[in-house]
Amino acid sequence: MKILVCNVGSTSLKYQLIDMDDNEKSLCVGKIERVGSQNGIYSHNDVKGLIFKKELAISDHSFAIELMIEILKKGLIQELEEISCIGFKVVHAKGISGVKQLDEDVLDSMAAFNCIAPAHNPPYISAIRQFKKIVPKIPLIGSFETGFHQTMEPKAYLYPIDKDISEKYSIRRYGFHGASHEYLANKVSEYMGKENIKIITCHLGGSASLCAIKNGKSIDTTLGFSLQCGIMHNNRCGDIDPYIIFYLMDEAKMSEDEIKLMLNKNAGLYGMSHVSNDLRDIEIEAYKGNIDAINTIDKYCYDITKYIGAYSAALGGIDAIVFSGGIGENSSLVRQKVLSNLEFLGIKINNELNENAKCDTKINSIDSKVAVYVIATNEEIIIARKAKEYLLSHK
Ligand code: ADP
Fold first, then answer.
1. Which of 19, 24, 118, 352 stands 20 to 30 A from 160 (CA)?
2. What is the rounded distance in angstroms from the CA atom of residue 278 to the CA atom of residue 379?
3. What would the pLDDT profile of 277-298 be if each residue is shown by its tens digit?
4. Ligand 1: distance of its center to the CA of 6 in Å?
5. pLDDT tens track for 111-159
6. What is the CA radius of gyration of the chain?
């Protein structure tokens, strides 16, 4: 069984073809960027030796999908029918979670939450409609990012607001990055040879979240009703006092759109540092003594440390911490700063292992009571497994 996993962004299409019958072997990875521009970039690397990176005009997602199919047919598949389904890491839908065939009802439910996932839902919905036209016979299966967090108890997912309003408008903590947290928890269990363990996973990418996981199940997570909370993100603010918004409306006469822009695009790493939304640039400025860059990194790490403390309490102890995502995998500075104040929990890292960490590595010192891992996440394999399970159970 071959499953194609596609990840759609507003200007990108990333894909991976996985042979589920051959030890879940990845047959290719591809990335089409700057969709909608004259100077798009298409890179592809497959097991048959086709490797390229080229620039070309990519008018829209339909064109990107056609390009991808043309390349897959150059050696990986003869006929489209060889692809059992296409799996998508879809983000959010009103009243829907878990794994679903992406029919019009599901797309409508996604559209109902466009306003709370504005960067993610609209491009996905539009691209999925194009997939339906171009490959009408291939089932399109979506794994919602919220799915893994459905095991949270009411005390973790309820907000302390009027219950009638929560119920009427489906307001609760949903949590995101489910496939990544699930993959990381599975990997740690595999490495430790145990299933009944307490883990805190830190997915630190452009968008970031932590998850408290007990015996393989999410019990709490930092993202909530939307992706606009928890620790700061590259451009989004994370947790803030909601009254800042009303105060700015009254005092600074800012409009709703201006505030949305401020919180979605001009906040987080970028807004605090005024350097960049990329931690690499901020680290360089911090080493030069830029105080805003230093404050941004300090705040980023301090908030992760606080959540680790809180989740250790929620879990009633902790066996392992995992760092993943672009920042978690690559920034030894962030890992060191996050963990340096947690010795009271029995967490000790080996500085040399931390400095030189490559994925997948254990970076704790031998006298640490808690294992600390750096693991490259693999959301695609989780999406493919879930799509396969869905197909087999809906035959
Ligand atoms: P996304 O969430 O978009 O998938 P990634 O998980 O790839 O993003 O993370 C991207 C972010 O990782 C970059 O914006 C940058 O802040 C950070 N990053 C990547 N490499 C490094 C590095 N060597 N050092 C520090 N931060 C890094």
1. 118
2. 22
3. 999 999 999 999 999 999 999 9
4. 20
5. 999 998 888 899 899 999 999 999 999 999 999 999 999 999 999 999 9
6. 21
Same-fold call for 2-144 versus 192-379? yes
Q: State which amino acid sits at residue 155.
A: K
**Sheet holding 208-214: strands in order across?**
217-221, 208-214, 198-204, 320-324, 371-374, 361-362
Give the CATH number of domain 192-379.
3.30.420.40
Q: Tell me if 19 sits within 8 A of 84, measured CB to CB.
A: no
CB 258 near ligand 1, within 6 Å: no
Whether 377 is in the pocket of ligand 1, judged by its Cβ within 6 Å, is no
Nearest-angstrom CA–CA distance, 66 and 58: 11
Task: For ligand 1, pick from 11, 280, 284, 354 the residue to mutate: most ligand atoms within 8 Å of CB.
Answer: 280
Domain 2-144: CATH superfamily, name plus number: ATPase, nucleotide binding domain (3.30.420.40)
Q: What does the alpha-carbon distance between residue 269 and residue 204 come to, in Å, rounded to a whole number?
A: 12
- The bridge status of strand 99-101 relative to strand 25-33 is unpaired
Check if 278 has its Cβ closer than 6 Å to any atom of ligand 1.
Answer: yes
The domain limits of the chain are: 2-144, 192-379
Q: Provide the mean pLDDT of the chain.
A: 95
Residue pair 374/359 in contact (Cβ under 8 Å)? The answer is yes
Give the CA dihedral 122, 276, 7, 373, nearest 10 degrees. -130
Would the CB of 331 count as within 6 Å of ligand 1? yes
